[in-house]
Design goal:
The complex is a heterodimer of chains A (426) and B (317).
Chain A: H1 5-28, E1 38-44, H2 52-71, E2 79-83, H3 91-103, E3 109-112, H4 116-129, E4 133-135, E5 143-145, E6 148-150, H5 155-170, E7 173-179, H6 182-197, E8 201-208, H7 216-225, E9 229-233, H8 236-239, H9 241-249, E10 255-257, H10 266-269, E11 278-282, H11 291-303, H12 312-331, H13 336-344, E12 347-349, E13 359-362, E14 367-377, E15 383-391, H14 395-400, E16 412-414, H15 422-425
Parallel strand pairs in A: 1-2, 1-3, 3-4, 4-6, 7-8, 7-9, 9-10, 10-11
Antiparallel strand pairs in A: 5-16, 11-14, 12-13, 13-14, 14-15
Chain B: H1 13-25, H2 30-57, H3 64-82, H4 86-107, H5 116-138, H6 159-181, H7 183-193, H8 195-200, H9 205-227, H10 239-252, H11 256-278, H12 280-297, H13 301-316
Helix pairs in contact in B: 2-6, 2-9, 2-10, 2-11, 3-4, 3-5, 3-9, 3-10, 4-9, 6-7, 7-9, 10-11, 10-12, 11-12
The chains are: A alpha/beta (426), B mainly alpha (317).
């Protein structure tokens, strides 16, 4: 199934010895080589452990971007030097490696982490060290932190594309099932807010523990309530079992999602028609039928012939590394404060650098305006684009009113919708 | 994708539908019964391999979940890559895991009899190796095989999941017959109760240990095989069975098969009722609270209670 195991092993081995050497090298002195002639980038993405299914594509796309940039002359003529030990889906290891990459390798910019729990585990270190940090997973939203740039779409952006579409096409009676942790709870709150804005209502809600893989009762409860559509914000491998069980139980109510397919490519892994009539709101899936994306996908698979999928997050790593390159070149230095100032003035990401289409960075809130699409999976597991629009980050920029480039410079917080919307807390 | 049982081969749908419809019309809560069958089957099948290895041999096999994963992997690969029909692939999944269990017993577990904590650490490590080894060899996920049989006629419930109750009962009966009615079973139990006397009577105790461990492993593999069509096939999938399996062993108590049956019935019913009424989260909590109450009130588990009742009845006669 996976003939790249040799190369993966050798990569791991190489990363391991690299770490050993660098630790040995640093034990002598403090390690102060800031006048180096390379640009140092740290990428911590999971290639083993629980998140390796979704983390490996992020690591691969990061490698692809860095290799492309290096082949074309690097950043300001300097080659990128990559530090990419495997954090193994382990938050303690993330904390150790983050400290190491910042203090010993002195990376100029850091990409790290799949889950929000990981981001929150390392954010205190990032803030203590004032490290320029890119977080690329789609997430619940609301992080306003001077050091953190959130490159993935927020829950409000993803749900803001798919929930209005579902209401328009299927009706106003919504049943939400969501993973029972921070991200799932906040996403369910956003479904309520967006439903209210569009004249619909969430009449049933169930939160499902991440360890749960038996959905018999959930499925019969949905059938009993008979909603117009279900919002399924399911996360992780255990929850993937829902789709097979739903199909074999004969539950054929249309389902919307912000998590399934684009991250863990369930439509490629599960037997059709498990994901029939599932609609997702995403900034990216590898099936997007544009010439620019098809070109990207072929570059990705040329480099990684054994890859399973180019997922939503992988493309966020890809474009954000190019965005960093442009910011450094505009600043004329890798000085992190200077690069941050350039990023905060806003950036446009266009052309081959952004496979999802032209997008822009909202400097004052450190988030992206994404090209959000509603993607439909049919009975044969073919993916089609049903709707497409550019959706900006709105929660921090409009509702809370954050400006990290001005009045809120120095802020290190995360805001939640319950503080701003009555519908969210109900 | 060919599945041997055939996704459309619903067994006499009209008859089943009629029977259930008739029950429903006289007020029987059919959806709750279906949920109960599903939950009881899951708990019994999750625990069966573990209870045999723990109850018969005193080894706590923390790699139990990974043995289940192995059965599911062998089954899925046999269908997807080799093209075997699903029932044959399931048999292969159980036999393959049994063979692996025999090798592990001969090479590793053998050194650890009577060393409970050591055996826990070693089997925990074995589990880690199996999970990550599977990930390295087969990648992060396998293409799943579809669930056969479709829904229960007239109800939004997977027919396959309900049929697993019959598989669970068959496994319990089979295990009971093997360990009580065959010469092997008598020798195996003799070995466990008093190895020295058994050896003096000419029983090859080494072989008994190996075979018993292999049977326990094979049943774990069978569980993986049976759940392969309705689960996501990933290296860490075995962990989803762990909580139920250990809670069942603890709640069930010392008499292996009776304990599993009683605990499966009690815990499955409670899980089904609570998750049907209040959702999966509350169902899981109810399961664990029940286990705590049972352990608090009945230190010897449900079989302890059963034995006490039997003794009392015996005194009265």
């Amino acid at each position: 199934m996976n003939p790249d195991r040799l190369s993966r092993r050798s990569v791991l081995a190489a990363a391991g010895t690299g770490l050993g050497v660098s630790v040995a090298g640093c034990s002598g002195g403090g390690g102060s080589s800031s006048e180096s002639d390379t640009i140092k980038i740290g990428v911590l993405e999971d290639r083993s452990g629980n998140f390796s299914l979704v983390g490996t594509p992020k690591w691969r796309a990061s490698k692809l971007a860095i290799e492309e940039i290096n082949e074309n002359g690097g950043i300001m003529g300097k080659q990128i030097e990559l530090f990419d030990p495997d954090p193994q889906s382990d938050n303690q290891r993330y904390q150790q490696l983050t400290e190491r990459l910042i203090q010993q390798e002195e990376v100029d910019a850091l990409w790290a982490g799949y889950s929000s729990a990981t981001r929150e585990a390392i954010r205190p270190i990032i803030d203590r060290e004032d490290q320029l940090y890119f977080y690329t997973t789609q997430y619940e939203g609301g992080v306003a932190d001077e050091n953190v740039f959130c490159m993935g779409p927020t829950a409000r952006q993803q749900l803001g594309s798919v929930v209005p579409y579902m209401i328009e096409n299927f009706g106003t009676d919504i049943y939400t099932i969501a993973a029972d942790y921070n991200f799932g709870q906040l996403s369910a709150d956003w479904v309520k807010v967006i439903a209210q804005e569009n004249g619909a209502s969430v009449n049933n809600e169930e939160f499902i523990p991440l360890s749960n893989q038996n959905f018999g009762s959930t499925i019969s409860n949905i059938q009993e309530a008979d909603p117009d559509f279900v919002m399924a914000i399911l996360v992780g491998n255990n929850h993937s079992s829902f789709w097979n069980q739903r199909t074999s139980a004969g539950l054929d109510i249309p389902m919307g999602t912000s998590t399934v397919m684009a991250q863990g490519y369930q439509h490629k892994r599960l037997d059709a028609p498990a994901l029939k009539d599932v609609y997702g709101g995403f900034n990216y899936m590898e099936e997007i039928p544009t010439e620019r994306n098809e070109d990207y996908v072929s570059r990705y698979y040329d480099r990684w012939p054994d890859a399973g999928y180019a997922n939503e997050e992988s493309v966020n790593n890809y474009f954000s590394i190019y965005m960093y390159k442009e910011a450094v070149e505009e600043a004329g230095t890798t000085d992190q404060k200077a690069v941050r100032d350039v990023l905060e003035s806003g950036m446009e990401i266009t052309g081959d650098k952004s496979p999802e289409g032209d997008i822009s960075h909202q400097g004052p809130v450190h988030h992206m305006t994404h090209n959000m699409r509603v993607m439909k999976c049919d009975a044969e597991h073919n993916i089609t684009v049903e709707d497409e629009r550019r959706i900006p980050e709105q929660f921090l920029s409009e509702t809370v009113g954050i400006d990290l480039s001005g009045k809120d410079d120095g802020m290190e917080k995360q805001f939640t919708p319950t503080d701003y919307y009555d519908a969210a807390g109900e | 994708m060919t599945s041997g049982l055939g996704a459309t081969g619903t067994p006499t749908p009209l008859v089943i539908g009629d029977v259930l419809g008739a029950l429903d019309s006289i007020g029987v809560p059919v959806p709750q019964l279906l949920q109960m069958a599903d939950s009881i089957a899951f708990i019994i099948l999750a625990a069966i391999g573990l209870t045999i290895i723990f109850g018969m041999m005193g080894v706590i096999n923390l790699a139990h979940g990974e043995f289940i994963m192995m059965g599911a992997y062998i089954t899925t690969l046999s269908v997807n890559v080799v093209g075997l029909p699903l029932p044959a692939a399931m048999v292969l999944g159980a036999l393959g895991t049994a063979a692996f269990g025999a090798i592990i017993e001969r090479t590793i577990v053998r050194q650890l009899y009577g060393r409970l904590l050591d055996s826990m650490i070693v089997t925990f490590g074995l589990g880690l190796i199996l999970t990550q080894g599977t990930r390295i060899i087969f990648g992060n996920s396998l293409q799943s095989i579809g669930t056969p049989f479709g829904n229960v006629p007239g109800y939004t419930y997977s027919g396959y999941r309900v049929l697993l109750l019959f598989a669970a009962i068959a496994v319990l009966i089979g295990a009971y017959l093997v360990f009580t009615r065959t010469e092997f079973g008598i020798r195996a139990r003799a070995t466990i109760q008093d190895p020295e006397t058994a050896r003096a009577m000419g029983v090859d105790t080494d072989r008994m240990y190996t075979v018993t461990f292999a049977i326990g492993s094979g049943l774990a593999g069978l569980t993986g095989a049976l759940y392969a069509p309705s689960a996501t096939i990933v290296p860490s999938m075995g962990q989803a069975f762990l909580v139920e399996s250990f809670v069942t062993v603890v709640t069930g108590g010392s008499t292996v098969l009776l304990g599993t049956t009683l605990a499966g019935g009690v815990l499955g019913t409670i899980d089904a009722i609570f998750s049907n009424l209040y959702g999966n989260f509350i169902g899981q909590i109810a399961l664990l609270v029940t286990a705590i109450i049972v352990i608090r009130l009945l230190p010897d588990g449900l079989t302890g209670l059963a034995n006490t009742i039997r003794d009392k009845l015996g005194e009265r006669q």
